[in-house]
Amino acid sequence: MHVKKNKSTWDDYYDATILSNQYLQNKISLVTSFLNTITFTSIVDLGANDGHFSLLFKNTATRVVAVDGDANC
Fold it and tell me: What is the distance between the alpha carbons of residues 48 and 33, in angstroms, rounded to a whole number?
């Protein structure tokens, strides 16, 4: 069975709104650098979209929770 997916604002966030791959790489570097200065066991990513940034910490944190209100993400 194929369910028709409704278009949402965030469907193609990384493809349509990111100005360049360099922007995304810089953001990844910034987030990683910041979170590497903190000792943590759990991460909660609110507004996670497809969980791109949550996945950066799958091997670092004991628990990673990614939440997004958009069902298409």
Answer: 19
